[in-house]
Specification:
mainly beta, six-stranded mixed β-sheet, globular
Amino acid sequence: MATLTAVSACAATACAYNDNGCSAPAITVGGSGSTASCTTFISLDARGGLPTANGQVGACQRLECKHNTDLLCTASSIEMTGDTANCASYEAE
């Protein structure tokens, strides 16, 4: 089984899964154009997910990303930046 990539930091403080870091068990990276983003992002007043910030990338929908192999992220870790959780590790081939 492949190892899942860790979400090492997330700046999207409005996300219900951001509780001093990504607390979603697994996120999906998607988006369109030149920006990859977290499609698991949801803006709610409540906080959810794991009790600790140990989020991982469960799937990557950006086929053109150099870190994507078989729809899994192969980067050592990723950072989500900005209010809408953009993937700072995204690099198109």
